[in-house]
Design goal:
alpha/beta, 1011 residues, binds iron/sulfur cluster, binds flavin-adenine dinucleotide, four-stranded mixed sheet
């Protein structure tokens, strides 16, 4: 048997060894794979790409799995257990993989429940329950139950838009509305909100476990079978340890976030022998959840947010108990000044931050107190009562308290909540240049002791010279913080260990829990004895052995764990390949390896129907490899060189980048600004050089579209004859590597440059100068848009300067990695524009994706060219120019739906488009959502048509279809307009400049009619 057909994995043998596995086991990987392939209807993936994709989660740890299974049915999940049992292979389950403690990675077979096992049953109003599969997304459950019975599943982690119920169960998750679940529902944690579960054990036994089974215990045991056997052992365990459990377990009403360790207290007779709840929080170390019956909490969807400012964060912490007791909010969160400073310096949520009540205190901190009710007036009334209480009874200055009425309509979607929810991601790479990591990011203490604990924790940071923003679920005593641990040097790692041990002692001295929601995994497991003592840890070990006597369920996590400084993603041997690169990676100090490390795994790019741009390919396929995270992880692994060993030649990376639309969604929407289009361009540049192969045909046809268009402009009629005549066009598409379903856009009879020259240049030779960039698309295809732009600018008295001859920003070249040529194009552009750039003349782009090159790629390619920096500063999108110079616009009292090109959204946003149109009197209805699906030429390429249309159907096309014929459709991007035109919407979209033209024509028409 070859090495790849066998795999040695660490295996637990002797629990006397503290920390780490004591022996190894050899797995017949080929036999296991074959067995899985013959018994599972889902996908069995033991390939290099899958192993690389699943080697990390959002934690500090990395372990390469044996293989991955994506089950299609619950029977598949059982079959995976049976096969793994037969072959002695360990198992770990995965939802969205957003865990921070290393509980989702292991040297094991990974079962990814998130793709297919997403069913959510109907909510039952009478029993206040809903049954769902483990891959169901937390938010989707709430949307459905909220709609059906006006109730929700209370614990909503900040990752609620993508984390899975199976993951919530694994971690015993909590969330912002755990306060709501505690005060208005069954209790704060997932375990408190579980009624029953169907589970499967490693040896393939499948059965339901419930709650309140104390009275039926004897009967269940008498029925025998694996379930009876397990119940008997659990009863025996419970009886032996009952007194100790009563003594050492903090009750949840005192310590609402007791998440560390196993919930052995749930087995106590006075609690009813709740086996289902005892299994919640076991992080895949005991059994796998197949289905769960969740308990629901009243939704209270009419919500009002009050924000209160404090001088210092511990002052805010001191206040929470009084607020909870007196006002019963549904959410009570905190933010500190560091988080807000970081967001401000990173330019994130800038407008929304203005909503925070502020004074000039250097350590200002805030409580976000959310009230909920079924009626808007009721939650507003409570908020007002709270505000009066703060001001009148507690003496707070009125300017320290804000009520955000605008956030009335339920949910947590307002931007301010996103600042809080995005905290763990946004604080990973703060502007101070130090990388911050999880490790002590969710400790919890009884809320009444939060202030003193926080003060001591801050002092501990100071003692160790650590930094980190603080925020969190203060209403339940849980503090979040990423810390600038040095996880690369032996000394740094020793300090990290020393700190964690001391922090654990501190937390326990306050009666706290090492983890308040993220679980123990490998990060805190080694410290568990501090919280529970060795004897109870022994009881937990016995509990695990009852379920998993062979020690094959997520071994080395929670109980008898790997050490907290083992299997680190970084570690003392971190020294990735650092090949020469073409972009400058300024955010990463020029280090491509750091760029590839940037993804912190929080999975915002895995939201299945995001209202932001990121990540359209994941939304279409629901495949990890098609998410920004998947791609980033593969690049990381490529530089690591352990799993992916062929560097730039890697087919695995190439394959994952193929469906990346280079839409730039991630550059804007990812909390740590993973810039996949740049990494893709970089990779493709080196890939084709390295494999010494020609690129596919479409790369030349589309990448060099400017050259093709230049030649076509000599005889556009003839070219159109070929491309628009059915038989001939088929041949042309084949030659160009274009999807047969697509139509080749027709060339305009005259280019914009020709038109401009023929009319004698600008009509305002004495006006203030503005360069209008004749991009390939509006120059050669949509000349009418270019004409409208010229006329709109000239109508305001400006002198339009249009570069002559062949110019191109090189936009399409990046998508295919033609970076040498792209650089030549940029240098030519700068040479052509140099005089204007140096005079400070605005450079306006009609086509958002081309202008985006000047704002983004340009300085990445030419970081040390001052003229490039000047051009980047002077470059403006069309409406941005109008708004910046307050250029008057004609009136157009019409309704319009407005779609922003994804590159436009990533390079300044389409706020100016909305403002301009509103100034015209247009009733603007923005269309939320991702990318049109064409993304330049991506959707034209052979093999991309279906995904391209799926992306279009995510939001743009349905919005256009349902718009009434009198409503204008506005979209500036060539590809967005083409996508609308080439689908069945029956509509043509207008550029903003065409809307201005329409307004002018309308007003001339009205004027003539009056005469
Ligand atoms: C930025 C950020 C913010 C976060 N905020 C919160 C928060 O507010 N509250 C909170 O609780 N957590 C939070 N987390 C942690 C994490 O997102 C949650 O705990 C979430 O519930 C995990 O869900 P998942 O689908 O990603 O699970 P995964 O990470 O995939 O899995 C979590 C655990 O569950 C196990 N598991 C998965 N499926 C099953 C199954 N079918 N049967 C048995 N075990 C299973 C896994 O093996 C693993 O041990 C945050 C993480 C990040 C990165
Ligand atoms: S790419 Fe960004 S959004 Fe996606 S998981 Fe990584 S950090 Fe999160
Ligand atoms: S560029 Fe677009 S498609 Fe590519 S990873 Fe980023 S968000 Fe996803």
């Amino acid at each position: 048997m070859s090495a790849t057909e066998q795999r040695s994995v660490p295996a637990h043998i002797d629990s006397r060894f503290k920390g780490g596995m004591a022996a190894t086991a050899t797995i017949d990987v080929r036999g296991l794979r074959r067995r899985l392939e013959s018994t599972v209807t889902g996908e069995v993936r033991f390939d290099t790409q899958s192993k690389a994709l699943y080697a990390t989660d959002a934690s500090n740890y990395r372990q390469v799995p044996i293989g991955v299974v994506i089950p299609k049915t619950l029977e598949d999940v059982v079959a995976v257990h049976q096969a793994c049992h037969e072959f002695g292979a360990p198992l770990v389950n995965r939802g969205a993989g957003t865990s921070l403690s290393g509980e989702t990675v292991n040297f094991a077979v990974v079962i990814d429940h998130s793709k297919y096992l997403t069913e959510i049953g109907d909510a039952d109003a009478q029993t206040r329950t809903v049954v769902c599969q483990p891959g169901a997304i937390n938010e989707k459950v709430n949307e459905k139950t909220g709609r059906q019975v006006n109730m929700i599943f209370g614990p909503d982690p900040s990752t609620h838009s993508r984390c899975a119920i199976g993951g919530n169960i694994g971690n015993n998750s909590c969330g912002i509305h755990s306060v709501q679940a505690q005060l208005y529902g069954p209790g704060p944690r997932t375990s408190d909100n579980v009624e029953a579960m169907e589970i499967v054990t490693h040896d393939g036994a499948r059965f339901w476990v419930g709650c309140n089974e104390e009275s039926q215990l004897e009967e269940i045991i008498a029925q025998g079978g694996r379930k009876g056997e397990i119940y008997a052992q659990l009863r025996d365990l419970r009886d032996r340890y009952a007194e100790l459990i009563r003594e050492r377990y903090q009750p949840v009403d005192r310590l609402p976030r007791r998440v560390s360790g196993y919930n052995l207290d749930e087995l106590l007779p006075e609690r009813g022998f709740n086996v289902a709840r005892a299994l919640v929080g076991t992080e895949s170390t005991c059994a796998t959840t197949l289905q769960v019956k969740l308990k629901l909490t009243p939704a209270l969807l009419m919500r009002t947010l009050v924000i209160v400012e404090y001088d210092e964060l511990p002052d805010a912490a001191d206040h929470v108990v009084e607020i909870i007791e007196q006002f019963k909010p549904i959410g009570l969160e905190a933010l500190d000044h560091r988080l807000i400073e970081n967001e401000t310096l990173l330019g994130k949520h800038v407008e929304d931050l203005q909503e925070l009540p502020r004074r000039d205190h250097p350590h200002s901190s805030w409580l976000m107190v959310q009230f909920g009710a079924d009626e808007a007036a009721e939650s507003e009334k409570t908020a007002e009562r709270f505000r009066h209480w703060l001001i009148d009874e507690k003496g707070y200055a009125p300017e320290r308290v804000s009520i955000l009425r605008s956030q009335q309509e339920g949910g947590n979607s307002s931007e301010l909540w996103q600042i809080r929810e995005g905290g763990l991601g946004a604080t990973a790479f703060p502007p101070d240049g130090r990388d911050h990591w999880p490790g002590w990011e969710d400790s919890a203490v009884p809320p009444e002791r939060l202030g003193p604990y926080l003060r001591e924790l801050m002092a501990l940071y100071e003692k160790y010279g650590y930094h980190g923003a603080f925020y969190g679920h203060f209403g339940q005593g849980c503090i979040h913080s990423r810390i600038d641990f040095d996880l690369r040097t032996a000394q740094g790692i020793a300090t990290y260990r020393a700190f964690l041990e001391e922090a654990a002692d501190l937390c326990v001295s306050y009666g706290g829990s090492l983890s308040g929601e993220h679980g123990d995994g490998q990060q805190r497991a080694e410290l568990l004895s501090k919280q529970y003592g060795e004897e109870l840890l022994g009881a937990m070990r016995e509990f695990k052995l009852i379920w998993d006597p062979d020690w094959k369920m997520n071994p080395g996590k929670v109980i008898d764990p790997y050490r907290l400084d083992e299997n680190l993603k970084l570690g003392t041997d971190y020294n990735p390949w650092r090949p020469p690169v073409r972009f400058n990676y300024a955010k990463d100090k020029g280090d491509f390896a750091h760029a590839a490390l940037r993804c912190v795994g929080i999975g915002k790019c895995r939201v299945p129907d995001a209202s932001t741009v990121m990540c359209p390919s994941y939304m279409a396929t629901h495949e990890e490899k098609d998410s920004t995270r998947g791609r980033a992880r593969l690049l990381f692994e490529m530089l690591e060189g352990e799993v992916i060993t062929d560097g730039w030649q890697s087919r695995e990376v190439h394959d994952a980048l193929d469906l990346c639309l280079s839409c730039k969604g991630c550059t804007n929407d990812c909390p740590v600004q993973v810039d996949m289009p740049t990494y893709k361009a970089e990779f493709l540049h080196h890939h084709y050089k390295s494999v010494r192969r020609w690129r596919p045909r479409h790369a030349y046809a589309f990448g060099l579209i400017d050259q093709a268009a230049r030649i076509a402009s000599l005889a556009p009629g003839l070219v159109n004859f070929v491309t628009q005549t059915p038989g001939l066009s088929r041949v042309a598409k084949l030659a160009a590597g274009m999807a047969p379903e697509r139509q080749i856009p027709a060339f305009a009879p005259i280019t914009l440059q020709q038109w401009f020259k023929q009319r004698g240049g600008t009509t305002n030779p004495n006006g203030r100068k503005v360069v209008l960039w004749p991009d390939t698309f509006n120059n050669h295809f949509h000349t009418d848009v270019g004409v409208a732009c010229v006329e709109a600018i000239e109508a305001a008295g400006w002198q339009v300067v249009m570069p002559e001859g062949h110019v191109c920003c090189g936009r399409p070249l990046y998508d295919y990695g033609f970076l040498n040529l792209a650089e030549r194009y940029l240098r030519n552009t700068i040479a052509v524009l140099r005089d204007e750039i140096r005079q400070g003349t605005p450079v306006v782009g009609m086509e958002p994706s081309c202008l985006a090159v000047f704002k983004d790629e340009l300085t990445g390619m030419l970081p040390h060219d001052d003229d490039a920096a000047r051009l980047a500063r002077n470059a403006m999108h069309f409406a941005e120019f109008f708004e910046r110079y307050e250029i008057p616009v004609p009136s157009l009292p019409r309704k319009a739906i407005v779609w922003g090109h994804c590159h436009h959204k990533a390079t300044g946003g389409i706020g100016p488009e909305h403002q301009l149109l509103r100034r015209m009197g247009v009733d603007v209805e923005p269309i939320d959502g991702g990318c049109c699906g064409l993304a330049g030429s991506w959707g034209f390429e052979q093999g991309h048509y279906n995904i391209s249309m799926q992306c279009g159907e995510q939001s743009l096309l349905p919005a256009v279809r349902k718009t009434d014929p009198d409503t204008l459709v506005i979209a500036n991007g060539f590809s967005c307009k083409t996508q609308i035109q080439q689908s069945d919407t029956g509509r043509e979209a207008l550029h903003v400049a065409q809307a201005i033209k329409l307004a002018r024509e309308q007003s001339q028409h009205d004027h003539q009619a009056l005469r």
